[in-house]
Amino acid sequence: MQVNAVASEPESQREVVITRVFDAPARFLFEAYSKPEHIMRWFGPKGWPVTLCEMDFRVGGKFRFAMTGPSGRQNTPFGGEYLEIVPNKKIVYDNGFETKGAGRMVVTVTFDEKAGKTTLTIHTVFESIAMRNSHVSRGFEQGTNSGLDQLGELAGEMARREQA
């Protein structure tokens, strides 16, 4: 599925790619993406917990999340549809805020495991350059990386539980 991209805007100018290497097998990271109890622990920037988490993790299934900021006010929900799921390898979904006229983005998350370490790549393609720039200027990359810090902590806990 492609977002309704502005025809003249190349994908390379509408994308953000974030890569992180985790000292954990892909199955832990994939599981963290696939279950609400895990999403609520790591997704989003630290201090902005996911307080609404509805997900039907299957191709064609929908998800809906919202985060609550330090003020205690829940932000506008966002969500989309799971477009492709390859266990422990890849998740593709579309996403956007539940605001009239809000743009959409397609997110591809890949899990590349080698020798017990996993390179996680999040490739986000926004509907337009303007949408991309708006998200980036409001801390999209910092927020995503903060969430990945929390994902690393959760994956470490999962590994310790498995070894116990």
Automatic annotation (TrEMBL):
This protein's name: ATPase
Pfam families attached to this UniProt entry: AHSA1
SUPFAM superfamilies noted in UniProt: Bet v1-like
Domain of life, per lineage: Bacteria
InterPro entries: ASHA1/2-like_C, START-like_dom_sf
Ranges where the Activator of Hsp90 ATPase homologue 1/2-like C-terminal domain occurs: 23-155
Family: Belongs to the AHA1 family.
